[in-house]
Structures are given as C-alpha cells and as structure tokens.
C-alpha cells in the first residue's frame, strides 16, 4: 500500500491524463508539482478546469460496492447440503400430509406438524445467515466515516470555505488547520506555521504524530512513513497549518486502496473448518439416505406391486397405490430419522455459549463461527506495539554525569506503566538530588508537552508517549529538599513544581533535521535559559560543555564524549530509545525574550534558525526508554510453543528494537541465530522462495512491515494450509484482518474500521488473551465433537430402527412427527449441555488439529454403528415384545388386557384380512380403551399405539443414557462420572420432563399418537435402554487399549531413531 500512486496501474480510459496514477508528487519539487497539475498556490484552479477535471476523475468519494440482494443472500443459505436435504424432506412431507388431509380428520392435521416444523427451522437458519452476511460489509461503511466532509479550497484566486470534500479534484489548492481531517491525498506546498504534525497512525500503525515538510523526498520508491511532504486522506492535523495541492482523490488515495483491498478480501471468505466437515458429512448422509431409502422400497416392493407367472411370463400385474404411499412415507420417515435436524440449533447455541465464556476472558467474538475456527489456529501473526508490549513507554535506565568528566552514574528504573508509583529508581538519592540530577529533572519536566491522567483503573498519557514517560521518571526522581511538602493528591506534583520554577516563554518545535526540541524558560529570579532534549548524538554535536555532579560546568572533551557515546551504544543494543538532555544560560538576544512582541521573536518564526539557537549547549545526561513487554506475554508464548502454535511478529517498528523485544518475550531464544528468521518487509518481498521462510519451525519476525506485506504473509500461509489468526488496530490492517481466518482487532487502540473487519476484538489489547481464547476454542470444539457424535449416533439408531421395521415387515413403529420431536426437542438439551463439558487439562499441550482432520474417525463410526444397531434392535424389539410376549425379564405386560399374537402374524400383518377366526380383545391405555370389534385387523394400525409409545420411550431413554457416554470420547464413566457436568444431568431431567409432558397431557398425546405408560411398562423401558451404557463402556475400553498400543509403537520408533 505504501507506494502511493505507483502501486495502482493506470486503468484504461479511466485516467487519460495520468496524474493520479503515475506522478510521484512526493519526489518532485513544489514547482514541478504545480506545473504537472497546471495549478498555482496563488490562484488555484479555474472553475472550468474543475469541471473538466471532474469529467476525468469523477467525485472524491469511495466506491459503493453493490452487495448481493436480500434474495441472493437467502438463496445462499440453501447451499448447505444438510439444509437442502431438510428442504426436500419438508416438501415431500408436506405433499404426503396434503394427500392424507384429503381424507380429513385429526391425523390429517397432525401430519402437517412435521413439514411446518422443518420449514420453521429452515426459515430461522436463513434469517441468522442473512443477518451475518449483512454485517460483512460494515468495514467498508466504517471506512467512509473517517473521511473528511468539508474543505477550504482556493479557486479562481479566492478561498472558498466549507466546500463539500467530494467536490475536490486533482490540482485543487487546499488549506489545512489544526483539527482538520485531510480530505484527499495531497502534496504540501508550504507551511503557514513553523511546524506541521499529522496523526496518521490509522494508516501506518505509528504511535506518535509525524512532522511534515514541503521538501521533496529523494527516493521515489518509499513507504508512507517516508513521504514526509505528503498528507493522506482520513488522517488528522494535530499541530500547525499549511497549504496543499490535491494529487489523488477517491479510490486512488491510500485509503481508497485499503477500501479496494477490504472488498477483495471479503470476496475470499472461506468456510470455517467445521462447516467444511459438516458439508462433507451432509454429502455422505445424502448418499447413505438415498441407498437406504431405495433398499427399503426394494425390500417392500412385494407388498404393493405383485404379478403372476402365466406360461412362464409375468402377468396379471397388481399395484396398490395406498400401500405404495405407505412405504414411501416410511422412506420419508427414514430420511427424517437420518437428518440431525437439531444440529444447526445446537451448534449455534454452543458457539453462543462459547462467546460468553470468551467475553469473560476479554475476547469479544463478533462472528460465531470464529469460536470454532480459533480452536484449530496454527499460526498467530501478532503486532508488537500494544499487543506484545504495554504501549506505554517507560524509562528503564538513567545516566547522569559523575563527580569528574571521565565518570558517569547509572540508575536502573523500574515500572512498565504511566503510574508514577509503579516501580522506583534503584540506588537513587530521593529527596537529596545533586545539581546534575536536578537539571535532568527540570529539563524532562519543562521541555515536555505531555501529561498523564487517571482514567478508570489505569493511567493514560495525553501527548507523545516518550514525553509522558519522562514526566513519570521525574515523579520517581522526586523534588529537592527545599520543595518537600507538595500536595500528594496530584499525579504530576513534581513536574508541576518544576514548571512553576521555570515558566516557559517560547518553544522551539522538534523537527527531523536537528532531532531535538527546546524551550526558553524564565526563572523565578527573572533570568532566561534554554532547555533542550533530543537525540543524544545530535545534542553532543551542538554541546560545548558538560555539567558535573556538583553543578560545575567543564569543557566537553573527546574522552567524555566517547564515554557518553559508549553508554548510548550499550543502551541502543538493548533496543532502548535514548534521549539526551542539555541546557544553556547565555542566550544572547534571547536573554530578555518575553513574548511575541520582542525583537528576537522573528528568529523563532523560521525553524531553520533553531539549530544555531541550540548551540554551545551544556550536556547533562541521558535516559533510555522502551515500550516494555507485557508481564504475562512470555508465559503465553511458551503456551503457544507447547500447543504447537507458531508465533510470527509483524511490526512497523525498526528491526533492532523488534528483535530485542522478541528475544525478551521468548519468540526467539536468547542465543538463537535469527539471521534467517528476521526480515524487514522489503527484504521478505524480495525473496524468491517466500514459502520456505514461512515453513520454518519456531518464531519469525517481520519488521518495518506495511499492510501489503501483512496481506502477502497471510495469503501464503493460507495457501500452505495454515489456519491464521492476525492482529491489527489501524485502518491499514483491515484488509489483512479480513483475509485471515481469524481477524483480531484491538479494543482499546483499534480503529472502528479494524474492528468491523475483524472476527474478534480484544477488550484489553493483550496477546495472552488470544492464547486463552485459542484454548477456549479448542475446548469448545472438543465439546462440539461430543454432541455431534452423540446426535449422529442417535440418528444412526433411528435409521436402524426404521430399516429393521421395514426389513422384518412389522408395522411402522415410529412415525415422522415422533422422530422430529426426538431430534429437535428431546435430543436438544443434552446435546447443548455437552457444550459445558470441562476442558481437558492438556488442551493446550496438544498440537493443533489439522483443518482437514476427520470429524468422525473410522473407529468412532464403527462404535456408533454398533450403538446405533443396538438402538434399532431395542426400539423394534420392545415393539415386538409388547405384541408377542406376556412378560419379559420377569416384568408382567398383560395388565392392560391386550391380545398377544405370534411373531409370524405380526410380520405378515398385511394379510390379516385373509385370516379366519382372528379376534382381538379391547385394551386400556391411561383413561382410554381401544376395541377392534368391527375390524380386528386395525389392531396392527390404530392398535399399535401402545407399542409405538414403548418404542418412542425406549428411544428417548437410550439417547439420555447415550449422552452420558458422550461425556468423554474414550474415558470411562467411572473416571469421568456424570456429575462432572451437572448441566448434563439437568438437561436429561428436562428431556425426560418433556417426554412425560407429551405422554400425560391428552392433547399432546393425541398430536404425537401416543398413550400413557404404566409402572411395569416403564421398568421394561429402562431394562431395554440401560445396556447401551455397558456396550459403550466395552467399546471405550477397546479404544483405550488401541490408543495405548499406538502410543507405545510410536515411542518405540522414536527410541530406535
């Protein structure tokens, strides 16, 4: 992004004059720029020129990308395989219900419950999906909000105020003042004030505002930070005023390019790993359902399509449409049984609960699927400033001059925040300052424009962070004995005291040429002096003397200078930012300076005079500052290493500082050779084989990185199959945040654009919060696997039940509306409760799962096929037991007076009308009595209501016991008892309660086609359902043995190697 117009080639026909595309205004003089754009600072553009320019360049606004229509978004929600299966099942169910409804009656109305419920699920799913898609483009809207709305423009020789910013064209002359938002990318023509500072951190990630000049830059190929004579759209003027020439507008500006990059990144949104797995599962399910439905029809074709052989050839074909429809309904019931209708709702609920857990850990999740994606993160690309560090500059070392010119004193300074009481200065004479330390404190306090305030639970800096750190240092130094007894409730009481003793009368603003700032102050005695702070080397060059411990001043000789430079080198090696302090008392014509009316004031209007004013200085000392690492980051990096997650630091800071911080926090080992692991953004982009660098084990560092470098790194990592989490806070980070699998924005320092482009926002801007969120994501994924396995095993059981019913030729045991109730309502609470399973202790000690890892392994599938087969046998078995057995396992079942039949009669019930002397006694169920005097054969249809109720109750009970099995993939219930997750026990109670509700409320019992059960019948249900726990315990034991054997063989191989 940082190459200005060079990065964007000319679009055919869109830029015939070529100004906005290829002219490097930053590398051209003011005169060349005016000539190129045919404009002058004195007269501006003529009105007719503006009109012709607008025809070429259009309006100064960001494009409005037309997103998909609401109907396109709705249709996109049906791309999901499971959703399509549900839709087909609902349509077929509706057609069958309509067909049944022609016969009238209550059962016709009941038949509509199933398709209506499925349609309701699909509608809710579509609404949620559309809502999430609609939020996707909000980053682009937030980007538009940072644009300026008005500008002051010179046209036809006159200044026009408050002209709409969108009317600007290249060549317009614009005036900027303090507080103005820059309306377009512009070349500074001349400064009205002595200095100009612009806050462009949203584009570059820099903490401090930057100085601007009208001097051209030598290199055409430079980044945004290097374009010191350019101001960019969306940035803010924080000091000074100037006149500028518009060079780029609309989509050609730096912010316009970011807009394009965000839009492009949003088009590349990939499905989350879980969604991919569920789609794969849905496709497999479609195939399985198709095969089983066809099999069911083939097995039962003899019941609705018959023929006789006449002379060796089939003839006399008979087709029963009624029976054909009946078996088609069974096939539909089988499809309903196979589809886990409740799965989308349970997944959404589990992810929503996960977001609440993460919010408690300061990770605010904006997009629900991100919770699951976090769990398989393999690479974290982190910014340095504010994420790995505190973003609060603090002094760590103070160097003062000793008693003799060849001696210096070193003081170690503690503290990592702007709290003056956070830490102390070691071996420091607090309250007994010598003259040299007093002067250092005075310069640090008075030659300083920052302040520190108390906000909530923390101290915050107002102004430049380095200056705020100096003020905190002054507070730790204390004040001289003469000033003891200052009010203790003021945050900067010592600084305030120094400012009262030395009143500032003029400021020599910092500039990049002399790299210093100076203030002229008037003492209480009325004499003036100059206090200066700045780059140590520059101050030493302009210093003639040095102040000793007792306040005496001696000539600055080469040996003293070498001693100070040696200290500077040592501090710079440790990535400290060093500032020197100097002063002078003899100011010449400024000795009596007292304000703008003084004759010498005209010299202060020209910054080129500042170096000569700040000459002949007396050097007093220096301080080393840094943005310290967060205390908890080192442990978080170690956790990442243990969890198999690689950490890559991508920062705009310089290489040496970033390397020192990375060693400090553990990204690199202290003695590690990082020649091939630390690159600047430009160095990395120049490599021919970038992927081999990114594939290295351990941490990597990319310094002086621009947004385009971040995007390239994310793109290459994703191409290699990595799941990438990327942090960012500025507008310039938004495209990379959008492109990453997990975009993480900073909650405190982050811009609205970055937050809108992200998937997650860190409320505390802390790297360790990301690591905690990854751990939570892994735990949530494990729990999701538990309830997905649970629901799928339950569905396998339902399919087995219907298949066995069809294969054995017995009456249909479970109707679609009952299966739907079980899948949606009864299974829902336990499945959701499994999302509360406690995390494994070693969740962050395992390598990240691959995004293509199977959701259901062959062994797990085999286990649940066994469990499913048992569910089928149990539900069909209890149906057969009720019809054929008077007692089972000592439980008497004849209390209701129902008639027993043989298994042969039950399996050939369709031929009942041909049986002679077949009679059926009435039986009772609750307060209802069922008699079959008029049509005994109806005993196998209307009379199956009790057997159906038993089958449904066994299915519910087995699934409740099966939820206990899902507490752990391989752990026994003896080692992980049910009470480790009390929510599961509550959920089981809720599900049983709901089942009792439909059993014992007459209206609901009629809707679901069931009747109340007696105590003996409930005993039978429990006896048939409980063995599912014992079967799975045996299978888990086999699984543990297989895992132990596999681990043993691996360790044996590693020993051999």
From TrEMBL:
Keywords: ATP-binding, Calcium, Calcium transport, Ion transport, Magnesium, Membrane, Metal-binding, Nucleotide-binding, Translocase, Transmembrane, Transmembrane helix, Transport. It is an enzyme of class 7 (translocase). It is a multi-pass membrane protein. Its EC number is 7.2.2.10. GO terms for molecular function: ATP binding; ATP hydrolysis activity; metal ion binding; P-type calcium transporter activity. PROSITE patterns: ATPASE_E1_E2. Pfam families: Cation_ATPase, Cation_ATPase_C, Cation_ATPase_N, E1-E2_ATPase. It is found in: Membrane. One of its GO terms (cellular component) is membrane. It comes from the Eukaryota. The keyword Translocase applies. The chain crosses the membrane at residues 81-99, 111-131, 284-305, 325-353, 861-883, 983-1003, 1018-1038. Residues 24-98 form the Cation-transporting P-type ATPase N-terminal domain. Its main location: membrane. SUPFAM superfamilies: Calcium ATPase, transduction domain A, Calcium ATPase, transmembrane domain M, HAD-like, Metal cation-transporting ATPase, ATP-binding domain N. NCBIfam families: ATPase_P-type (TIGR01494). PANTHER family: CALCIUM-TRANSPORTING ATPASE. Belongs to the cation transport ATPase (P-type) (TC 3.A.3) family. Type IIA subfamily. This is P-type Ca(2+) transporter. It comes from Rhynchospora pubera.
